[in-house]
Amino acid sequence: MRRDSRLSRMLHVLIHMDRIDGAATSDQIAQMLGTNPVVVRRTMAGLRDDGYVHSEKGHGGGWVLTRPLSEITMLDIHRAIGNPAFFAVGVAVDHPECLVEQAVNSALGSAFEAAEKLLIEKFASVTLADLADEFDQRMAKIANKPTCELSR
């Protein structure tokens, strides 16, 4: 099963957007992510609908942040991109009458629920400013060598 990297990719993009002068076009973001601008616009629409970004059309247009990174959490972005599943594993429902399957599903279900609760709490406690600060610390260690397209 392929992993859903939308959260990671959008966190990445938003931090870059905070660091550039002006707007980031869908084409620029698509090039950075190795995807199509249509995919970028579709994903950014959820962020726009939740008030994290704004888009301007025409010359000089593109996507801009509408809030400071300190006011946006990882959980906010997770929700804005549609609450993708945290886990690729799940319970079997092949034989719901089977008592063994019921016991297994009960144990797995409670473990998944506890893990998801912990992830949600962690995501809610980390702002994009926290991630940007870590980026700044890493950047200082490598003497200002840009490593991503929008940083250039």
UniProtKB/TrEMBL annotation:
One of its GO terms (molecular function) is DNA-binding transcription factor activity. This is Rrf2 family transcriptional regulator. It comes from Thalassospira tepidiphila MCCC 1A03514. Pfam families: Rrf2. GO terms for cellular component: cytosol. InterPro entries: Tscrpt_reg_Rrf2, WH-like_DNA-bd_sf, WH_DNA-bd_sf.
